[in-house]
Amino acid sequence: QFQKHHFNIEATRLKLVEAANYVDKFYRSLNIRIALVGLEIWNNWNKCDVTENPYSTLKSFLAWSSKERAYRKHDNAQLITGVPFQGTTVGLAPVMAMCSDLQSGGVNMDHSDNAIGVAATIAHEMGHNFGMNHDSAGCCTTPAEDGGCIMASATGHPFPKVFNQCNRKELEKYLQSGGGMCLSNMPDTKNMYGGRKCGNGYLEEGEECDCGDVEVTIVQIQYLGFSGTLCFANTLMSPGTLCRERAGLCDLPEYCTGESPFCPLNSYQIDGAACDGGRAYCYSGMCLTYQDQCMQLWGPGARPAPDACFEKVNAAGDIYGNCGKDIYGNYRKCEMRDAKCGKIQCQSSASKPLQSNAVAIDTTIRTQRTQLRCRGTHVYRPESEENEMLDPGLVLTGTKCGSHHVCFEGRCQNTSIIFDSESCSKKCHGRGVCNNNKNCHCNQGWAPPFCNKPGTGGSLDSGPPMPEGPSAVVITLAILAPILLLIGIMFLFYYLKCWNKFAICSLKKTPQFSDTSGNGHANPAFKLKTPQEQRKVIGFPEIPSKPPPQQAPGLRVNAQQPSAFSSGYNCGVGQPTGPALPSPAKDIARRTPPSRPAPPAPKPPVSQDISRPRPPQRALPANPVPARPRAWPGNSPAISLPPARPRTPGQLQPAVEVGSLKGVTMISYCKTPSSTASQ
């Protein structure tokens, strides 16, 4: 590439940066941002073997980039070279390997002087890393004169610029399987190539918000601001709040730190960690099993075939059974130990594989006791594409092929050679797992970094989780609640006791006033009886069997009548005005009438101080209580009471407002300010 631009570093740099910007623009339609975090131009020598063979070039480049990833963090690496590949191949990349530490990348040939040409190839090969296959018939609706689609099997001028719905579905399927674990992290804007820039859509230091280029619409601006993707939150969640749930068997949860508005970087279990009950290994954030791969190819109900199918079919070394291709593009026979890393063999009742351009390869194997039906898949592609894309019918890299063995590059290899999971897990003392940063993610009850001390779990990368069980606040409330309740009950009893004493003392000291109304006379003429299903107002005075003791001049205390509900306080005037209340509609049981008339009721004073009651200076004159002649049951004569006197201003009269709450009747009394009628 450097030689193609006549050894001009600046010209080479400008074209590559422009191509990266195009790739970012293409992927925005899939809600993916491509951030350029590094650009390296080899102007002296190549740091990997770059030849006309795309397979050997890819293998050499991926080995170099996997070593560089340990020092320079990145998700994906793409090689752009001016060396022409053999045949019509312009690029090559592993499928479903975006987050693989060993295989995330691709090689691309710069076949055009226009930056958008190499950008289309980079986006295509990166699409294979994202799990996208070549477009099947009917997927691309963009006409060829407009460039067609990026994932088409061939490219030309004008160059493609769009993805289609088939690509979107394949991407979503790949991400849902856990393949995009490394993509949840926001790029470190300090390390982005080109430095800080307003309008790049990334929130950088010193910016309150960055909504992207001028093509971003108002609706997109509002969405980005609301989601908090680009703008800081107003408040911080408390430490330990779960901000990113576990998204698969190999994923790990993240928690708020209380110091940042952003969730910590996504972390997941290290490649080679056991998953699915020890039946598989984690690889690139995915738990890869033969069962899941068969279901992806054949649909629900599919399952892996017996080992005999793998051994028999993949020993052929042809297009239907093999362990991949060598660096020359020839199919390799599978050795017995590598048979389960070749073409995957399944058992399914489906008529054909799910992929539109795939066909079933059925093989029948006879054993001593039974007959096995082995089903493989073959994706038909033009001969020009055979060397461009790896076979999707092969067992995926990272699949467990035996005890402590994993499929890698078409061979069943020891995990100690490929992964570093066992040595990393030893420092976690058996109380946690290693994450992709090779830090311990501790179980609940143990603290990072080595899970050898009590704590709340989590890791240095994920943030601290909430303590298991009730929090300190809940424990404190649980302890204080009974104490506060006891104090409240004691205070209530004390208050009621003091209130009863105060009410009795008030009646003794101020016989003409009642504490319940605050400014009225005691009224023995009304008494409230409230049975559960009956409300009656008795319009005659309660007559005691004998005169009450003379505790104070003019004071009359009624004897309490036994009842389930009785009024504790009576407030009102001694002389009701207006016509007498009508008789009750129904007869009710009454006590036996007294043998002698009731003593006269006390006469109210002519004037009084409404604001504050004062004790009488002298005995009040007699004031008969008005009542209607009433006939008592039996032979007792009616009791005649004198007519009522005219009502004087400033006195109280009973209101007509009656309410009921759960069968308990309440009558309220109101103050009449003048001689007008009651409201």
Automatic annotation (TrEMBL):
Chain residue ranges for the region called Disordered: 566-652
UniProt keyword annotations, A-Z: Disulfide bond, EGF-like domain, Membrane, Metal-binding, Transmembrane, Transmembrane helix, Zinc
Designated name of the protein: ADA19 protein
Residue ranges of every copy of the Disintegrin domain listed in the record: 195-271
Composition bias, Pro residues: 594-605, 613-627
Source taxonomy: Eukaryota, Metazoa, Chordata, Craniata, Vertebrata
GO CC term, one of those recorded: membrane
Keyword presence, Lyase: no
